[in-house]
Design the sequence.
């Protein structure tokens, strides 16, 4: 069963802020075991939260577009709440930046909140034929935890993903995986650094590193890590790393 995001008030006219309408559709879908369909249009939205057990899909990554809201203070387009989010799916959606300084497209941050009880993170997710483009921060940042192994981002599958960084921003990167990010599989697709317009904006496709408290895409010895915890088991099958000064770095 699928619900149409436009039935929840999303306009898709490229101007109206559709964030509240799309989030309402996501919340309804998660509560009622159904999917969210976004028909061909350009939706303005950010600050959206994945919920457990839902799928959002469109008519293709060049047809169903979510563009960030210009001037938004939200630090991401898609993220997760505290605690565990699991069994989510993105399919046939394009996600485009709006020029907001430091904004990430997808920021998955594993955190338990003030109670520190239980576990957190994103578990069991599948993203298929999604395009992410031109964000000044990370196109995708998986910020896993550390210390006690209760805050992982794990068991993730990606098919035909196209991830393209902004090449004039030193803080832009295709994918950053920090802390406990485990068991990811990428089939096809590409990460594209688009070269660099200056020495300060060296192209990096992918950085895998220990746990971070704050965003850091550098690849020198100046990085301060929150712990020595890092992830494991990443499979790259038939995908390409393009126009990068450094395709993959680890720390």
Sequence:
């Amino acid at each position: 069963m699928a619900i149409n995001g436009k039935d929840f008030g999303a306009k898709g006219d490229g101007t109206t802020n559709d964030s509240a309408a799309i989030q309402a559709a996501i919340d309804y879908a998660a509560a009622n075991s159904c999917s969210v369909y976004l028909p061909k249009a350009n939706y303005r939205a950010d600050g959206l939260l994945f919920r457990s057990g839902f799928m959002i899909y469109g008519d293709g990554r060049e047809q169903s577009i979510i563009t960030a809201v210009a001037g938004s203070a939200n630090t991401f387009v898609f993220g997760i709440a505290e605690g565990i989010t699991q069994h989510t799916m993105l399919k046939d959606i394009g996600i485009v930046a709006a020029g907001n300084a430091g904004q990430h497209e997808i920021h998955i941050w594993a955190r338990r909140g003030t109670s520190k009880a239980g576990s957190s993170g994103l578990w069991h997710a599948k993203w298929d034929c999604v395009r992410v483009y031109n964000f000044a921060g990370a196109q995708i940042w998986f910020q896993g935890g550390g210390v006690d192994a209760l805050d992982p981002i794990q068991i993730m599958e990606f098919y035909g993903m196209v991830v393209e960084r902004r090449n004039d921003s030193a803080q832009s990167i295709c994918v950053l995986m920090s802390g406990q990010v485990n068991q990811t599989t990428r089939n096809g697709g590409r990460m594209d650094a688009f070269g660099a317009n200056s020495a300060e904006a060296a192209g990096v496709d992918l950085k895998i590193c220990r746990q971070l408290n704050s965003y850091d895409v550098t690849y020198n010895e100046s990085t301060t890590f929150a712990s020595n915890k890092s992830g494991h088991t990443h499979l790259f099958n038939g995908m390409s790393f393009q126009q990068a000064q450094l395709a993959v770095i680890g720390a």
In short: The CA atoms of residues 52 and 86 lie 5 Å apart. The chain has a mean pLDDT of 91.
